[in-house]
């Protein structure tokens, strides 16, 4: 292979703004500085993770201090900025307000880009997907700087750089991809094609406080004390995996991203800059450390037969009967329903209709939906030595 992919790891112990700004400047300078990624007067879109309208302390979204520091460094280089994302349920403006980004953007005079409406684009180089509908705010920019959050994810293992661009598709349309591509490998190829088209210029991951466990919304805060920087999304996501002792080969977005030419996950092809990787390794990080089992699926009647695939379950003691899980379920008829129309009890699953996209688990505001590993999988799976 030619030039090695560079990943800068910068230790940052908290979200105190001066510390974050210093860390962001250090990370960017290790990769050549802001003008390495944009020229003055270009219109660059900052793409944070705004999964839902949650406060920053939930560790569900990109922290406003990281967003502000990245924005200020590029503004100081005379780069024109917009920002935006398409949350799963809430409107972009609502989510950005609750997450604290709207207040920062107002202070810095950065406009919220249009992530509600979109236009169809054709991508003839796409390996699997040659057509997307992308948010107008994405199409109106000259380039993208992606600012994901370090989190676990029920479907893809972790949600990092590669997955972050899924938010460039306007909200309601994202569910269609889960219906069309219930197989995780097909879904990952779609994400790879999407990234190949968008070609973000830089990825800056907020891992100061990460989310472990039942991510990407219902997990627990976990201090990791790091901000990561790279132009290679595969290398950055793989480096995160090594921090939390998760084999990168178990994450389909990483493996398929490498196959699609987005970057490399091989350790010998990645140059670590900044602070030592070993100093960030945390074996206690709660994440599923086993290969993702693709769905076995009969397309004629869409009936799942695979007894090894984790199922979503509702914890009745946590469920507040808000119905968001029903709203988010992308299949028709829904895989969740109110038993006999009774909304005073938690919804029930019709597992024969469930495509295991975990949209319900992803969006639950009370962490009431978790993924239960079937007994057969526990019996047959043995961790690699």
Task: Name the descriptors.
385 residues, alpha/beta, Rossmann fold, Alpha-Beta Plaits, two-stranded antiparallel ribbon, 13 helices, 18 strands, 22% strand, globular
Would you mind describing this structure in some detail?
It contains 13 helices and 18 strands. It is an alpha/beta fold and 385 residues long. The protein folds into 2 domains: 5-280, 3-Layer(aba) Sandwich (Rossmann fold), CATH 3.40.50.11440; 303-380, Alpha-Beta Plaits (2-Layer Sandwich), CATH 3.30.70. The strands form 5 sheets. Strands 1, 2, 3, 4, 7, 8, 9, 10, 11 and 12 form a 10-stranded mixed β-sheet that branches. It has a two-stranded antiparallel ribbon with strand order 5-6. Strand 8 (149-153) and strand 9 form a beta hairpin. The chain is globular. The chain starts with a strand and ends in a 5-residue tail after the last helix. Residues 298-305 have low confidence and may be disordered.
In short:
The chain is an alpha/beta fold and 385 residues long. Helix content is 29%, strand content 22%. A hairpin with a 4-residue loop joins strand 13 (297-298) and strand 14.
